[in-house]
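Example 342, ligand guanosine-5'-monophosphate.
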Amino acid sequence: MISRIIDEKAIVKAKGLIEQAEHIVAICHTAPDGDAIGSCLAATHVFSAIGKDIRTVIPDSHLFNLRDLPGAIDIVDATKYYDFAVKLLTDADLILCLDFNEPKRCGRLEKALCDSKAHKILIDHHLNPNIEADVIISHPEVAATAYLFFRFLCRLEFFNLIDKKAAECVLAGMMTDTGNFSYNCDDPDMYVVVAELIRKGADKEKLYRQLFATFSANCLRLNSYALLNKMEVYKDECAALITLSRDELNRYHYTKGDTEGLVNKPLSIPGIVYSCFMRQEADMIKISMRSVGDFPVNELCSQYYGGGGHLNAAGGEYYGSLEDAAELFRSILKENKKRYIK
Ligand code: 5GP
Ligand code: MN
């Protein structure tokens, strides 16, 4: 039997809200990844099975590799259907806030979410939840929201309602946030859940190909170029940096998601403890950092790049030139080593 982690009072309250609700919306953060989308779609499958009118609403488009997840076709993307997305949030009597910790992570839907009179249930694994919700189920120690959501469903006694489609969505979330079970995955209960999901028919090999092993030729070339020509390795400081400018991205016909995972690559070099990737966007520089062990990239992202995240995976933004963003990173390498690396 797996341990109980969700507080019983939260379960009872959430159960009541779900029973009363007719119109439910599942919503997640901007640039939704497999965990965000997997959690929302799992909710959509299970709650529609008990007769609820439920839609997944997302602030902006998800990555291309999530398009085949069961139910993805019915997602309401606010970049295409903004008014409809706002109407769904406004008319909902229950909103499930999945895989984010504060309304501002909902980007263009932040106001509609905050203004909605619907009851709200937050289920998430990011630190420091800061949202007005009737029920807050926040467990930063779990690897994926989809995994927490599965456990939530079990506690609601909805295990039997989890069909093959919902199981694949949950598994997609767990695979996404653990890099296909290569990090944040030392919780034995996760594998009990994986076994149940596979028993329900989830095709893990198919999901692996969809989520981790489907790339366009341009994407492969862009990543090869970045590693060959743009990776700066600071061996003494245990760090690496990759930057890509607009021009470089355009040269390889960059589309969203093409650099997903690139930031992890330098961590395969022995002795490299943290890695930073900077991508020039239209109005800012998007920062992504990853680390191994107890090096806190969330602290760096929050202190220098107005962001945050998890100990080993964090991000932020820089408003200025790509070169200045990179120079700032280079200038703190020695200090970081002193502060965080024994
Ligand atoms: P990624 O590098 O995949 O964009 O983001 C990794 C993690 O860092 C996300 O799951 C999220 O927790 C956090 N993160 C990324 N960008 C931001 C940001 O701009 N602000 C904050 N607070 N967190 C971010
Ligand atoms: Mn997540």
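Summary: The longest strand covers residues 274-280.
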